[in-house]
Amino acid sequence: MLFVAPALALIAAFLVFPALWTLYLGVLKYDLAGSNAAAPQFVGLGNYRDALTDPRFANSLLLTVAFVGLSAVLGQNVLGFLLAAVLRDAASWVRGVVNAVVLLAWILPGTVVVFLWQALLDRGGGTLNALLGTPGAAWTLDHPLATIVAFNIWRGTAFSMLLYSAALGAVPRSQLETARTYGAGPLRTLRDVVLPHIRGHVLTNTLLITLWTFNDFAPYMLTGGGPDHRSETLPVYVYRTSIEGGALGYGSAISLIMLIVNLAIALFYLRLLRRRSA
Amino acid sequence: MAGIGLSGVTKTYPGGVTAVDGLDLTVHDGEFFALLGPSGCGKTTLLRTIAGLEQASAGTVSIGDRDVTRLAPGQRDVAMVFQDYALFPHMTVLDNIAYPLRVKRIPRAARHDRAREVGAGLDLADLMARRPAELSGGQQQRVALARAVVAHPKAFLFDEPLSNLDARLRLSARTFLKRLQRDLGITTVFVTHDQAEALAMADRIAVMDAGRIRQVGTPREVFGRPATSFVAHFIGSTPMNLLDATVTGGRLTLAAGTLPCPADLPDDTRVTVGIRPEYLTYSKDPVEDALAGTVGIVEHLGSSSLVTLETDGAAPVGVVVEEGAEPEPGTRGWAVPRPGRVLLYRAGGGDLLA
Ligand SMILES: Nc1ncnc2c1ncn2[C@@H]1O[C@H](COP(=O)(O)OP(=O)(O)O)[C@@H](O)[C@H]1O
Ligand SMILES: [Mg+2]
Question: pTM of the prediction?
């Protein structure tokens, strides 16, 4: 007890206290400025009722689900797996180059990456427009969701790729070759041999990237949530209401809803993971 | 039914290692054929090249009368049993055995019936619902065999199928495997580094060394008349005596004595004399045409013993002696070759001369 006391103190200070504080703020009408800043009013579940009936919240939730589903569950997962599978049999120099490029996307600071993407997508002199021969195309304005989806796939695929590389390395070659000599094609081998071996990795990876993407704030730096709330995922929505809009209590309530959604997702995956041993 | 033909097969790995080097070989239809050689000599590579898991760098592979050199493994109609058995851990024994039929899209009920039938023949009837992790090594091996049998291929390819079994089980598995192959009559190539296994099981043996075949023959031929001193040294549970000698006046002069020369060779020819310890008769009294030495170590082999005669400065001579007739260490002893059992090799690791 004595030895874990410092750790407990740290956890209390940096995790439990903010969580409780958020819980507390969530039941207040508490603003950054104005009379409600000086003397917050107790509103009970009012903030939650407001959020759940707010069409802007519903829009944001839907966008987040689409963002997570397209960019993480599908995009990073599938692309990461494909890269890992293809690289497994590639020449070592190809593997080295692809690894380096993909890892670079992952370890660069978010602001740097966003800056690069702005240069890529820029309406005037953007690289993409130059490549495609579409001068003046405003990607972030015309396709805001697609933009942040592509961005997040590009940025996060490295993790899935590395995880799947390790997982695939653990699938015994002799089992793959046995399937092959009996005439199984790549898809059948994937289903019968590879996936059963890496099922746990798939679930763990999907859980992690789902949570990261769900809470990812980088889209804000790229599109600012706009235009017209069309890329306003939940973290962006919280930021815009509580920091830009000043409604701290309301923002806290939404944060708590996000936390609950996160927990639900985690529990769902853990159940799936546990079913494996049954 | 199909034989296997290899002609000029070479396999060079991307790293530059030539594991199989311009190899010609014919395995007859229905034959139980052993690829025997020390570790690293290219046996597994050759087997994988037959299976199509490795692409030959040169040469052709045929199975039956079909040239399969460019075909994918799945189109060659062979079944391979890997050293680790490669059972699918998430499938039951039944599903493992039925797997080749599943790939061929045989309906579930039919393929399970067939798998049960084959499994029962290999003594697996009570284990059908288990997972591989719940089986002993011998049972896992039989499941892997059953899976190969279900596929009903043109040829079986076994890579050291017995090496993961303990010594006693290995002996019964030998008998079992040989009977299975004979009953099915399917052409079988099996890889082993264990000469006793090859001698016991195979119809014919190819002895490999450094990516080449040094001798092909029946167990009797390979044991009785090894074609090179390498094969002579490799085959036999007690290593063959390989002794330096020179020819003088129709006789062989060795460090331990002189022997009649079995071939007509010019004087001063340097040769290596090969005599199996089993083909030497021990005598505790001096005799003509014998190798003499001082009894060193006596190793008990069971119903006989291996006696090592030390000769001054030259290689010791091993003699197999009947149980109960072992000499005392330190005494003088003589070893007389049985008629017709003295082999001559060209000196310096060469070919059989006589
Ligand atoms: N995938 C590979 N890449 C490069 N070299 C290999 C590979 N597999 C085997 N070798 C080399 O080829 C030679 C023969 O190997 P192998 O066929 O496995 O021998 P064996 O089965 O007789 O022990 C060895 O020198 C081994 O190091
Ligand atoms: Mg091998």
Answer: 0.82
Same domain as B258, residue B163? no
Q: Residue B225: which of B348, B350, B343, B353 has the closest Cα?
A: B343
Write out pLDDT tens, residues B180-205.
899 999 999 999 999 999 999 999 99
Give, for ligand 1, the residue of B17, B50, B83, B213 to mutate: max count of ligand atoms closer than 8 Å to Cβ: B17
Collect all residues of chain A within an 8 Å Cβ-Cβ radius of residue B75.
183
Question: Looking at residue B310, which CATH number applies to its domain?
Answer: 2.40.50.140
Cα–Cα–Cα angle for B154, B156, B160, nearest 5°? 170
Q: For residue A148, what are the domain limits?
A: 55-228
**Ligand 1 pocket by Cβ (under 6 Å):** B 13, 15, 17, 19, 37, 39-45
| Residue B192 and residue B314 share a domain | no
CB contact (8 A) between residue A177 and residue B90: no
Q: Are B53 and B222 in contact (CB under 8 A)?
A: no
B155-159/B187-192 β-pairing: parallel
Task: Give every CB contact of residue B313 below 8 A, 6+ residues apart in sequence.
Answer: B255
**Among B234, B254, B281, which residue terminates a domain?**
B234
Under-70 pLDDT residues of chain B: 1
Instruction: Please identify among residues 104-163 of chain A the ones whose CB lies closer than 8 Å to any CB of chain B.
Output: none
Query: Which residues lie below 8 Å from residue A183, measured CB to CB, with a gap of 6+?
Result: B74, B75, B100, B103, B104
As a whole number of angstroms, the distance between CA B9 and CA B50 comes to 10
**ipTM, interface predicted TM-score of the complex:** 0.85
